[in-house]
């Protein structure tokens, strides 16, 4: 007897387990049993698992009997004519859904020609092993699997048209490409997903060559003429939000231009863009620290009596200003209410982003890189036909990554651009490369994609032929303008007196343990000392007991809390964080004694 479990619960025993499992499958295909159930025969534990629970991942496959798929040419023609639907095929038992458990008892074939009498199912398409984004990668079966997944991740970070109603949306941190293209090299998924309605890249001419060494380590070189003609131009949108909050005691915030007697008033220059209602006007050109929404709030603490009597007059400044490093034009101003009925003001800032050195680009094959140099068009190499590439890609990125698909895309898109058609590059089902090469040959080009090129500076012919073609390139959202950060002096933390952390807070750049080691290795002791004195402080120390001495600034006297006044006191230079640690030790009841030695 074999035990039967329904969703992990024991429900009974059967004599003939194989017949029982086959009977359930046959009934499901006929419609006698629910379509959502799956059955698995676990031979190791000698039990039958029937699954009918929700939340299981199930996928469609074609049923095979005696090595012949039940889906015939007749069915496919009927599908094309819309005489039958997908659901009809499921109802007839031609297509069924398997879950992970039932798949354990099945033998699936990718292609019809691979079928044997042992096979139980046939894949609808081998493309189903890839996700939606990975199946957008052209010629995916000619590349290394790791690059395929990297290419998939890169596409998720690309800038395109993220929503058609972007003009009326207040999204947090979005980019919009100005002139996106439909790719010349596309897969079947591009059509099925309506990719042309939300494209995220541009077709450019790419030459695989080194140039002046500025495209080492995956960097790319970009033609300045292409940028001036609008290549990879995008807009960056970011909102500034303010709301009138209500406080206890009937007090509330107020959106208005702050008066000069308000606590924390900045300067007239900061408020110059505000109109009578305290809100900035559209298309104003703003930079960091400019106020976009003027706001005042009631006082935080009603501590002293004199302040309490004037509480109605003394308000504090709480305007919304642009953060460190932000700039742009005011794109859109919206006034509305939030859930509590309080006034809500949203202002969207727009910044045009023109490609610059350090901006990140990628192909769909995981070949990512930043711009290393923007080359004037007159200095760019050109072909005998006068074609100047938009991007120069380093040849060293190909051998170790083994992205043959990138080279195939260059050839395929070159053919597609010259013959004015889209080239199908679906993974496992692409147009044969030989056919594409023959077409390129008939168009008057070499079938290996190489061309004679000339040096743009000297006009001399290059000694080697250069592999050049068209390609779909994506601009990624990692731009220098969002990441550039430098600091000389600036804000410090209250507790440790060290610089604040992070770009938004205008923070310092931390020199870590490993960076310190490189300076030690170079013997640059004075530089090392300078780097580590962001919180240096001078502390008086008692010679006899080694404790920090108290300095009474009112009486201008110094005395030791242990030894009194008549002791030798020396000023030493330590980090404030170390002084803080000594104080922490004191709170634990430990005695942190400092023993001073002569410097000389």
TL;DR?
20% of the residues lie in helices and 26% in strands. The chain is built from 14 helices and 34 strands.
Structure, explained:
By secondary structure, this protein is of the alpha+beta class. It has 5 domains: 2-124, no CATH class; 136-233 and 357-474, Beta Barrel (Dna-directed Rna Polymerase Ii 140kd Polypeptide, Chain: B, Domain 6); 236-353, OB fold (Dihydrolipoamide Acetyltransferase, E2P) (Beta Barrel); 485-531, Alpha-Beta Complex (DCoH-like), CATH 3.90.1800; 536-587, RNA polymerase alpha subunit dimerisation domain (DCoH-like), CATH 3.90.1800. Helix content is 20%, strand content 26%. The protein has a 6-stranded mixed β-barrel. A hairpin with a 2-residue loop joins β1 and β2. The relative contact order is 0.10. The model has no long low-confidence stretch (mean pLDDT 92).
């Amino acid at each position: 007897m074999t035990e039967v479990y329904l969703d992990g619960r024991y429900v009974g025993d059967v004599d003939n387990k194989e017949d029982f499992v086959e009977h359930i499958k046959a009934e499901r295909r006929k419609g006698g049993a629910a379509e959502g159930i799956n059955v698995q025969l676990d031979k190791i534990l000698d039990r039958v698992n029937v699954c009918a629970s929700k939340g299981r991942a199930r996928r469609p496959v074609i049923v095979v009997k005696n090595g012949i798929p039940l889906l015939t040419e007749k069915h496919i023609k009927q599908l094309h004519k819309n005489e039958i639907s997908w659901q009809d095929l499921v109802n007839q038992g031609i297509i069924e859904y398997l879950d992970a458990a039932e798949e354990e008892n099945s033998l699936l074939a990718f292609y019809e020609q691979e079928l044997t009498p042992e096979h139980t199912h046939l894949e609808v398409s081998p493309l189903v092993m890839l996700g939606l984004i990975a199946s957008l990668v052209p010629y995916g079966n000619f590349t290394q699997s790791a690059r395929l997944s990297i290419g998939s991740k890169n596409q998720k970070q690309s800038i395109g048209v993220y929503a058609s109603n972007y003009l009326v949306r207040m999204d947090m941190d979005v980019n919009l490409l100005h002139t996106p293209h439909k790719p010349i090299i596309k897969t079947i998924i591009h059509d099925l997903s309506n990719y042309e309605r939300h494209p995220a890249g541009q077709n450019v001419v790419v030459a695989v060559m080194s140039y002046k060494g500025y495209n080492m380590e995956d960097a790319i070189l970009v033609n300045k003429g292409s940028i001036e003609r609008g290549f990879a131009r995008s807009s960056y949108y970011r909102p500034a939000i303010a709301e009138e909050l209500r406080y206890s005691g009937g007090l509330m915030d107020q959106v208005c231009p702050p008066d000069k007697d308000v606590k924390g008033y900045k300067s007239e220059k900061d408020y110059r863009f505000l109109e009578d209602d305290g809100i900035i006007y559209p298309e104003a050109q703003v930079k960091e620290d400019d106020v976009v929404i003027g706001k005042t709030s009631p006082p935080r603490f009603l501590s002293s009596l004199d302040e309490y009597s004037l509480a109605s007059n003394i308000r504090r400044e709480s305007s919304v200003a642009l953060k460190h490093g932000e700039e742009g034009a005011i794109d859109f101003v919206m006034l509305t209410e939030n859930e509590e009925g309080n006034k809500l003001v949203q202002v969207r800032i727009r910044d045009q982003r023109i490609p610059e050195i350090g901006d990140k680009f990628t192909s769909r094959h995981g070949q990512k890189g930043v711009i290393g140099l923007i080359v004037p068009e007159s200095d760019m190499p050109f072909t005998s036909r006068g074609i100047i590439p938009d991007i120069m890609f380093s040849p060293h990125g190909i051998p170790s990554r083994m992205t043959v698909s990138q080279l195939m895309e260059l050839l395929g898109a070159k053919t597609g651009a010259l013959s004015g058609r889209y080239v199908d590059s679906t993974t496992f089902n692409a147009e044969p490369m030989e056919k594409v090469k023959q077409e390129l040959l008939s168009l008057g080009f070499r079938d290996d994609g190489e061309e004679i090129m000339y040096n743009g500076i000297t006009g001399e012919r290059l000694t080697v032929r250069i592999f050049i073609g068209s390609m779909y390139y994506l601009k990624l959202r990692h731009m220098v303008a969002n990441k550039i950060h430098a600091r000389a002096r600036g804000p410090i933390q209250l507790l440790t007196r060290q610089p604040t952390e992070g770009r938004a807070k205008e923070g310092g750049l931390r020199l870590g343990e490993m960076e310190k080691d490189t300076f030690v290795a170079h013997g640059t002791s004075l530089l090392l000392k300078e780097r580590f004195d962001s919180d240096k402080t001078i502390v008086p120390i008692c010679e006899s007991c080694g404790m920090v001495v108290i300095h009474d600034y009112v009486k201008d006297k110094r005395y030791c809390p242990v030894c009194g006044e008549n002791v030798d006191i020396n000023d030493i230079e330590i980090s404030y964080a170390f002084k803080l640690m000594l104080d922490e030790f004191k709170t634990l009841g430990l005695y942190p004694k400092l023993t001073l030695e002569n410097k000389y």
